[in-house]
Amino acid sequence: MSTFKRALCASLAGLILVPVISSALTADEVKAQIEVLLAQIAQLQAKIAAAGGSTEVAPPAGGNVICSISRFPLKRGDSGGDVEALQLFLKSQGYFSVDITGFFGPITENGLIQFQLKVGIISQAADGGVFGARTFQYVISTYCTRPPPPSNQCLTPPPQPVLTCTGTWEKNNDPKGCHVGWTCVSAVDTTVTPINKPPIISSVVGPTTVDINKSNTWRVSGSDPEGNVVNFSVVWGDEGSSLSQLLNISREGTPYSSAVSYSHAYSSTGKFTIVVFAKDASGADTTATLSVQVNDPDLTNIGIGGSSCKLNSKTYPDGEVTASPACAASSSSSCTSYPFLQCMGGTWVAIPSIGSGYLTGDVNSCVINGTVYGNGQSYTLPPGPNLFDSAYPSGGNGKTCRDFPNENICALLTGSSSVTLTCQNGMWSSDSQYGYVPYGTGSLCVSANGIVFTNGQRAYSGANQFQTEHLYMCREGRWFTTDIYGNVIVLLATPPTVTGVYYPPQDINITP
User: What's the mean pLDDT when you consider all of the chain?
Assistant: First the structure.
């Protein structure tokens, strides 16, 4: 209720009470007081009109005026702003037609009863007339709507949960930034555990080509990123069936140690891979590898052909000779006897001297015991026993090799005197009627005891060819040891002493 209106109502109430409290006044005194009150009322009404005010209370923003009632019950005899709001509400509903006074009298009571009957709050008039809980709930739920909060206004934030959080409770905000909930965030362990890095192998240094049964030494070096001690273990690659277990399971060959020098001798030829393991104190390991070729300078399979060879990444054509790298700093007997390598048909062969191996002279040259003779040069054969050359090798009914001039299977015949051979356009010819060189023979081998063999012929030493001690073959004008199948084994530095021609079993095919 406005100030002006309250003052007006108070004046009217005082006017009504005058006869009661002033019953001893004279009529003139009462009249005088009434005139004073009426003058005050006129002044108040003038002020209200001048201020543009109204005698009615405007409904609150966002809802019906009844929504501003702050208490109940309201009944006859009550007064104040809540009664004023009730009267305005009843008037808006057509149940109160007089001026708003803010005083709950019989007119307000009767209007309230009519409203309660109309909406079904009561069923008979005797039950109504009081603005109680049921009426309050009805008008609030029917006529009052609460507008949503402004877009920039948040609801009351929820309290922090009482549940135990192992970390800390952190607020959850919606897209508007309003606090709408809580989340338990576990404590984060900020301790950083360093990751152990494996050691590093800097180098594996040692020979890559070695001789069989000869001890060699390799050196390794490495470091650990964390500065710890590094231990090494070596797998040589010739461990046999246990090799895969050493590499894949135990990851250890020789016992781990801090030594940096390791020695080993290979007992078989071939290509092997050395694997070096490096391990730190935490068990992290790493590996490095080195390939090693193991050769036997006294036992080298030779293939005669036109293939090239490689040595230390350099390619050598067939027949080329080079110093053996393995003998550069070695005085072993093998290096003394075979200090050179020659490419023979794609395979490196140890040879005793330059010119003693595979021969690559011009087409008009001839060869005896590995020595090349140019066109027109001569070679003198000393007198020799030539015990085996009087008969055809297969026993041809007493026929001699002279009866088969076009077959390259006969030894050269010599008599009791020396015979001179001359190289003519790549072929040896004899100046003796007793000597004969089979057709197309430009390469000969002469044994230490003077027996002559042509290319592809085989010889033996021993009691007989069935009780042999050694087998030999004349090939490309050089002497080789061989097995019973004709596989060339090793090049001989000097001619052997032989017993006779070796004839292989008939079911074995030997191709010179």
Answer: 74
Count of C-beta atoms within a 10 Å radius of residue 378: 13
Using left for φ > 0, alpha for ψ between -120 and 50, and beta otherwise, residue 496 falls in beta
pLDDT score for 354: 67
Instruction: Name the nearest CA neighbour of 231 among 263, 199, 204.
Output: 199
Closest CA to 304 of 487, 445, 452, 458: 487
Maximum Cα interatomic distance, the chain, rounded to a whole number of Å = 199
Q: Is it the case that residue 427 has pLDDT exceeding 50? A: yes
Structure tokens at 370: 């590995």
- Helix, coil or strand: residue 220: strand
- Report the distance separating Cα 51 and Cα 45, nearest Å: 10
Q: How many CB atoms lie within 10 A of CB 246?
A: 19
Tens of pLDDT, residues 134-146: 898 888 888 876 5
Position 7 confidence tier, pLDDT thresholds 50, 70, 90:
very low
Each residue of 182-214: pLDDT tens digit?
A: 888 877 666 667 788 999 998 999 999 999 999
The tokens describing 103, both together, are 């005083």
Does the pLDDT at position 66 exceed 70? yes
Task: Please give, one letter per residue, the 3-state secondary structure of 362-377.
Answer: CCCCEEECCEEECCCC
Q: So what's the pLDDT on residue 40?
A: 62
Task: Report the alpha-carbon distance of residue 75 to residue 123 in Å, rounded.
Answer: 19
Beta strands 340-344 and 347-351 are antiparallel
CA distance 122 to 119: 8
Q: Which residues contact 219 (CB under 8 A, 6 or more apart)?
A: 203, 204, 205, 206, 260, 261, 262
* Pairing of β 231-235 and β 452-454: unpaired
Sheet strand arrangement including 443-446: 371-373, 366-368, 443-446, 452-454
User: Which run of H or of E encompasses 26?
Assistant: none
Highest mean pLDDT pick, 63-77, 253-267, 403-417, 491-505: 253-267
Give yes or no for a contact between 263 and 217, defined as CB atoms under 8 angstroms apart: yes
Contacts of 88 (CB under 8 A, 6+ apart): 56, 57, 59, 65, 66, 100
Q: With CA atoms as reference, report the closest residue to 301 among 340, 346, 356.
A: 346
Beta bridge partners of 34: none
Buried b (16+ CB within 10 A) or exposed e, 73-95: ebeeebbeebbbbbbbbbbebeb
Task: Say if residues 411 and 401 touch (Cβ distance below 8 Å).
Answer: yes
> Using one digit for the tens of pLDDT, what is the confidence trace for 388-419?
343 444 444 444 444 444 443 344 444 556 77
Q: Are strands 443-446 and 366-368 parallel, antiparallel or unpaired?
A: parallel
- The whole-angstrom separation of Cα 281 and Cα 286 is 13
